[in-house]
Amino acid sequence: GAVVSQHPSWVICKSGTSVKIECRSLDFQATTMFWYRQFPKQSLMLMATSNEGSKATYEQGVEKDKFLINHASLTLSTLTVTSAHPEDSSFYICSAIPGLGLDTQYFGPGTRLTVL
Amino acid sequence: EDKVVQSPLSLVVHEGDTVTLNCSYEVTNFRSLLWYKQEKKAPTFLFMLTSSGIEKKSGRLSSILDKKELFSILNITATQTGDSAIYLCAGFNTNAGKSTFGDGTTLTVKP
User: Fold this and answer.
1) Is B41 in Cβ contact with A44 (below 8 Å)?
2) What DSSP string describes B42-97?
3) Does A103 reach chain B within 8 Å, measured CB to CB?
4) Is B99 within 8 Å of A106 when comparing Cβ atoms?
5) Which of B110, B74, B107, B100 is CA-nearest to residue B1?
6) DSSP assignment of B87-101, as one string?
7) In this complex, do A43 and B102 lie within 8 Å of one another by their Cβ atoms?
8) How many contacts (CB atoms, under 8 Å) link A and B?
9) Between vectors from CA A61 to CA A55 and to CA A62, what angle results, nearest 5°?
10) DSSP assignment, residue A114?
11) Closest-CA residue in chain A for B34?
């Protein structure tokens, strides 16, 4: 149980294009999902907390207009990197908490984004 | 601002060795300390600790929390090459509803 999927697993795009990454909880409902990015040999950097049916809460320094997050249902959150640039190239990981009051996060397999 | 510090940052051992990974935290409204293992992709959950002094165990891995000293350790006995990974700990802030992660300890187990 507690499986989280991400799609796509990797994507290469040209500078200036937008990329959408999907995060799905496959066997549970997730009221809260998190989006992280991770650079090589570095730890997870929380970008935003996504709550179903409400606006995402962004961490300091993360541009909300550049990283659009939508949590339209209890099993799906999307991250759209708008007008991507090479510096946006990174490993993006989502995670979900299977219920209110629970602390354990279940992570998706991640999406490797490369912007040329 | 919540803070989690792990040590050492990296560690190289040989198969069969025992290792201890450290995690100290300063997390307001602290509720739990979580350990994850990250290999090539995303982290996988190992332990969640909420009470001091109660050891959690899973095979060769065990972990314990000290809420007075704001500290946790992860022990791995009889290490195997498959234990090579980045081990992350995180402190959960119940008011903020989110975890703060440490920078991780990169463990390399040589045959």
Assistant:
1) no
2) S-EEEEEE-STT--EEETTEEEEEETTTTEEEEEE-S--GGG-EEEEEEEEETTTT
3) yes
4) no
5) B100
6) EEEEEEETTTTEEEE
7) yes
8) 42
9) 45
10) E
11) A104
- 8-state DSSP, B16: T
Show residues of chain B in contact with A110, CB under 8 Å.
41-42
Express each pLDDT in B55-88 by its tens digit: 999 999 999 999 999 999 999 999 999 999 999 9
**Band (A1; pLDDT cuts 50, 70, 90):** low
Put simply, whether A62 touches B (Cβ < 8 Å) is: no
Q: How does pLDDT run across B28-43, given as a tens digit for each residue?
A: 999 999 999 999 888 8
Query: Tokens representing A116?
Result: 């040329």
Q: Is the peptide bond before B8 cis (omega within 30 degrees of 0)?
A: yes
3-class secondary structure, B19? strand
Beta bridge partners of A113: A11, A90
Q: Which helix (H) or strand (E) holds B13?
A: strand B10-14
Look at residue A100 in the predicted model and tell me its pLDDT: 62
Which residues from B are below 8 Å from A31, CB to CB?
A: none
**With 0-12 CB in 10 A as exposed, 13-18 as middle and 19+ as buried, what is B108?**
middle
Check: CB of residue B80 under 8 Å from CB of residue B88: no
Contacts with A44 from chain B: Cβ below 8 Å: 43, 88, 101
DSSP state of A56: P
Outline where A16-106 has alpha helix (H). none
